[in-house]
Amino acid sequence: MKMNRAMKQDRRGFLKVAATAALALSSLPFTMRSVGAANDKLKIGVVGSGRIGGTLGGVWVKAGHEVMFSSRTLENDKKLAASLGPNARAGTPREAAAFGDVLLIAVPYRALPEVGKDLASLIKGKVVIDTNNPISSRDGEIATWAREKGAGLASAELLPGARIVRAFNAIGYARMGAAREQQGGRIGMPMAGDDAKAIEVASRLIREIGYEPVLIGGLAMGKYLMPGTPLAGERTPEQIRQIAATLK
Ligand SMILES: NC(=O)c1ccc[n+]([C@@H]2O[C@H](COP(=O)([O-])OP(=O)(O)OC[C@H]3O[C@@H](n4cnc5c(N)ncnc54)[C@H](OP(=O)(O)O)[C@@H]3O)[C@@H](O)[C@H]2O)c1
Questions:
Q1: What is the tens place of the pLDDT at every residue in 64-87?
Q2: Which residues line ligand 1 (CB under 6 A)?
Q3: Counts for the chain of helices (H) and strands (E), in that order
Q4: Of 8, 24, 132, 218, which is most buried by a Cβ count within 10 Å?
């Protein structure tokens, strides 16, 4: 693909961001318990075990991690966990947040303020993968606010103290469930975050689902990780890098 001068400059800017992130990653003091280190099995707490939480959690159980599923309906979580075997369990959102070294929060955006308040003391300092999309027709006013602020920065405000990385936002859940068997890293998964450890852990978990992680920038860039943006849908890692280089 031929690039014009503006695109080349953007691309240079992007490469600078990526290099800085890589440097931050390698120089970060290792202060957290073995989250994401080498091939350790992780404890993953899923808050919101619907289509996304149930699907991703299920693939991570198959990849050998321990996963606790939670929602406001414990019965559903128990059924889901029972169908996945001994590495899966069910609990309340507070139990899942306490259990997980890593949390996946996957709820309708309108539930995020309540989740943030209920779990406030438990999510501080934890890696949180934010799949949540503000959809005005479903989530109402909070979605309008979040879209104006940008979804990544809005999630950070609603989940204070968490080490947030935004990912799994704009590919359908059913494709995510099948990716591990079908595509082996050919499709990229754009992610945005400011926290090097969160980026590292999410990258590993993204690979285990079957995608190649592509960091597009800090949380402020999380506003592009939503349905209806140029990055939505399935793209190769190189296509994602090229599109991201044109976004600000
Ligand atoms: N579906 C997709 O393909 C897709 C793709 C990318 C991103 N996303 C985004 O990911 C998020 C989840 O989507 P989804 O499709 O998985 O939704 P979903 O199927 O409706 O599942 C939502 C889950 O959240 C739980 N929940 C709702 N309010 C809660 C609360 N206050 N505390 C704890 N759990 C709560 C629900 O169970 P209870 O009601 O029983 O509590 C349910 O388990 C959304 O923000 C969506 O926009 C979806």
A1: 999 999 999 999 999 999 999 999
A2: 47-53, 71-73, 76, 93, 106-109, 111, 114-115, 131-133, 135, 168-169, 172-173
A3: 12, 8
A4: 132
